[in-house]
Amino acid sequence: MASADNAADLCIEASLFKTADKLRGNMEPSDYTHVALGLIFLKHISDGFELKRQALLAE
Question: For the chain, what percent of residues have pLDDT higher than 90?
């Protein structure tokens, strides 16, 4: 059963990498890292905001 889960994870990972390649298009990999890091930063800020918002609403 565990090997089936691993195979499914590898399939999903391969699919995600293939999708990322399509989204990147003709962009250089070094430029793509700036986009990816920017999105990760925005996600981090959004999560922090949501935690603070929930704490304020709880008060």
Answer: 32
Residues with Cβ < 8 Å from 24, sequence gap 6 or more?
A: 32
Q: Give the pTM.
A: 0.50
pLDDT for 33 equals 80
**35 Cβ partners below 8 Å, 6+ apart?**
27
3-state secondary structure of 20: helix
CA dihedral 40, 45, 46, 49 (to 10 degrees): 160
